[in-house]
User: Fold this.
Amino acid sequence: MSKWIKNGFIIIALLILVFSFTPSYTSLSIDNLAYVVAIGIDKGEKEAYKVTFQFTTGTSSQSSEQNPSIINSVEASSIDIAINLMNAYISKELNLSHCKVIVFSEEIAVEGISDFIYTFINHVQLRPSTNIIISKATALSYIENTEPILESLVTKYYDVFPNSSKYTGYVSNVTIGEFYNALVCDTCEPFGILGGVSTGKVDQTFKSGNDFYVRSMETNFVGEQGSENLGLAVFKEDKLVGELNAIETLCLSLVRNQVDSFLISVPNPDNEDEKIDISINNRNLTSKVEIINGTPFITISGKLKGFIYSMTENDNYADTSILEKISESVNFHLENLLTQYLYKTSTVFHSDINGFGKHAVSLFLTLPEFESYNWLDNYQYATFQVNIEAEIQTGTMITTS
Assistant:
């Protein structure tokens, strides 16, 4: 009996050794995975969609030279089918855990992207921090032209470019998690990062069926980097309805208190032909929502501090009366910009991307009453009042406290 037990232990030990050293093809093996860093979605010619996948080559991130990436596309009837087809094509299993951006062409976005968003959110590998980009060019063209000039890894570029929102306000760090939350929300609407390719001008309006939306002005970039990210793409529910240019995006960043500091140019009160550059420290604007005669009345107010950035030899900015005039110029300029931006979101886009509905909820006794009011439809009738009080000083006399 003891001999049988001894032989049994020997057999078990041999089986463990055999299986330990037998090559296995499982999803847990890093050699069998292909890590996707970007996904692009365009309309297809033979199938409904053309899906582009960008992979890294896996070279060392310590290299001083730019590491190349591999870009492959496949046409399919859905995202899941596209992933399955690409698995077969590259003979490896796609892994989305390192995906940095999802790029939609505007041609796709104007028709609605909710099905894609729900599919990606349901994908356990994809991180909620993945950025959403709406490209004026095709998604494939955007990905192909993304060649960072100050980073050796395209993945590093995808990581850092949204961070400029904190000190410029010209772009917003929009993630798929935030887009999904706004998509299913009764108090706000979603928006995405506006991307494009620097290859010349495009028409200022884009047509898809019977729907039109207003494009923002072209940027003035000239350089080696083929793709650009500036402004925001505005959605009504899951459909693209318009764009915000850089200054309008700054207004959104101010209203949502998502920018720490920013630079603006205002008219010189002593010389209408000159501009003065002002660096502003955001002190957080406050939003107040009221319902008057059944329509929203929204007040934006706040105090800002800043200092004069551009100075010439003949400027006498030490004179308090001149500083007061400049402060008044800043007040008028910001109030005008914010007012125009707010009415554009309501009367043109009919989209509360600012999230004012979150303040409106408290005006109703019960949630069913708020839902019955239908804030997202009534936002188009909103009126606005903007009150900005800026204190402008010169040079290093101002602090960020």
